[in-house]
Amino acid sequence: MRIVRVSLGQRSYNIQIGTGLLARVGNLCRRLELGRRCAIISDANVAPRYAHATQKALDRAGFATELITIPAGETAKSLGTVAACYNQLAGHRLERSSFVVALGGGVVGDLAGFVAATYLRGIPFVQIPTTLLAQVDSSVGGKVGLNLKAGKNLVGAFHQPRLVLCDLCTLASLPPREYLAGLAEVIKYGIIYDAALFRVLERDLPRLLRREPACLAGVIARCCEIKAAVVQQDETESGLRAILNFGHTIGHALEAISRYGQYLHGEAIAIGQVAAAQISVCLRGLPVSEALRIELLFQRAGLPTRVKLTAARQRKLFAAMKLDKKVSRGEVRFVLTPRIGVAEFGHPVPAGILQRVLHPEPGAAPGLEQGQECPPRPSGQAEGGSACPRPGVAAAHSPHPTPSHV
């Protein structure tokens, strides 16, 4: 078993990664000195498979458990679902010393965490992510929230879990499409933070596609280490943590305009990351060869990399991007990369470049070629320079070396 520590003072916690953790959840929770009553929040897909084992382990450790099952899918991240959970928690007489167990993927974790953050003004919760995407990303860092019709994650809070348990056994039952969607977040960490991890993914992708536990354990641990390192420096996303949103500005907007039905989250951000790489070629000097490596890795992982938009859909997409949480002074700000392993945040992107990336002219090669298909540079600007002003808030991050276990 691997353990990654998220060090946040009194809000510190462990991420445990291994097999057979569901059977141990009761004993592990008992060490946290929580109250004896808890509610397991799961969804209609996950609960039939894993809720009984989780409940049994908690009962055996002396906890009184209640199961709350919500609908499956992104549309469940709503105020209506939250209200239903509140009523069930109140009906089961949960108190401030009680806790919530989030058993499921990213939707369950976000929603259950928000319920825990707000019920009785905040009760503890434990994350048991059952999807690859949730294990490497959404279960770590304390961001919890809901969607509105206007956009994704527009209501939320920061509420750190007391413990995260990543049981690799749950990944074996994931449908192929959902598993592949999780790889989009894995690849993201290599692009924004760790070039060595990116090379490992290029080399070991066949093993990941076979879901080999030894390979998965190392890669998941490294992703969690990266996220922990970023969150420890910027817990509430006032600066550096924004790099974790690489590809998400376009990705979230794609999800919103498709009403969360056409793309899985990982699929949408795969498209968003390829677009962000293409923008980076133009604005941040990312070598074309590296942009091609990025797109090829997503393609090898079975993920979409491009989207065809009508003019009407493009207008809707741009409007949805205006609701992104990184908007500043009315400008959409992007996370970009000058080279694999480094990310910068706070970049405004001219509309012409966005249109060129997302809606190539008939007969034109898709995407951007460095120095050729960008809008004209301002007069006097050196070749290779940015086509937009240097962002007021930007950070380049030097990657940490990849541990030997990856």
Structure summary:
The protein has helices at 25-30, 47-60, 79-91, 106-118, 132-138, 176-192, 195-209, 213-233, 248-257, 265-283, 288-300, 311-321, 351-358, and strands spanning 2-6, 13-18, 37-43, 64-70, 99-104, 125-129, 143-148, 151-158, 163-167, 333-339, 342-348. The chain has 406 residues and is an alpha/beta fold.
CATH architecture verdict of the largest domain? Up-down Bundle
CATH topology of the largest domain: Dehydroquinate synthase-like, alpha domain
The Rg value, from CA coordinates, equals 21 Å
Number of distinct beta strands: 11
Mean pLDDT, rounded to whole units?
A: 89
| Domain module tally | 2
Q: What's the helical proportion of residues?
A: 40-55%
| Poorly predicted ranges | 361-366, 375-406
Q: How large is the count of helical segments?
A: 13
- Order of helix and strand elements from N to C terminus: EEHEHEHEHEHEEEHHHHHHHEEH
CATH top level class name of the largest domain: Mainly Alpha
Structural class, from helix and strand content?
alpha/beta
CATH homologous superfamily heading of the largest domain: Dehydroquinate synthase-like - alpha domain
Distance between the termini: 14 Å
Task: Explain how this protein is built.
The structure is a single chain. With 406 residues, the chain is an alpha/beta fold. It is built from 13 helices and eleven strands. Helix 4 (106-118) links the parallel strand 5 (99-104) and strand 6. 50% of the residues are buried. The model is unreliable at 361-366 and 375-406 (pLDDT under 50).
